[in-house]
């Protein structure tokens, strides 16, 4: 069963705002008010995780808005990604 992260404000973390990792991890991240002002990425996806990221506001993270590490993938739909320092969506890592 997938974990759902919904209707939160995730701000000001000293690392990534949300870390999604692990084989067959199909977490759904949807309709969060703000994922921003985090020291690293707003959302970091790694270790063969495959989340669905939908309808979030991802702003002003000090690295990427969303970072997909090699071996992981994500469905990314209808998000607002603005003013993330390195890039809005990053591939690699």
Short synopsis of the structure:
The protein is mostly beta strands.
What does the secondary structure layout of this molecule look like, with pairings?
Layout: E1 4-6, E2 9-11, E3 18-21, E4 28-30, E5 34-36, E6 43-46, E7 52-54, E8 57-59, E9 64-68, E10 75-77, E11 80-82, E12 87-91
Describe the structure.
The chain is mainly beta and 93 residues long. It has one domain. The strands form 3 sheets. A 4-stranded parallel β-sheet has the order 1-4-7-10, with no helix packed on it. The protein is globular, with a radius of gyration of 11 Å. The mean pLDDT is 94.
What does the largest sheet look like? 4 strands, parallel
What is the number of strand segments? 12
Work out the count of structural domains.
1
Strand order of the largest sheet: 1-4-7-10
Quickly count the helices: 0
* Element-level helix/strand string: EEEEEEEEEEEE
Roughly what is the average pLDDT, rounded to an integer?
A: 94
Derived from helix and strand composition plus strand pairing, the structural class reads: mainly beta
Keywords summarizing the entry:
12 strands; four-stranded parallel sheet; mainly beta; 93 residues; globular
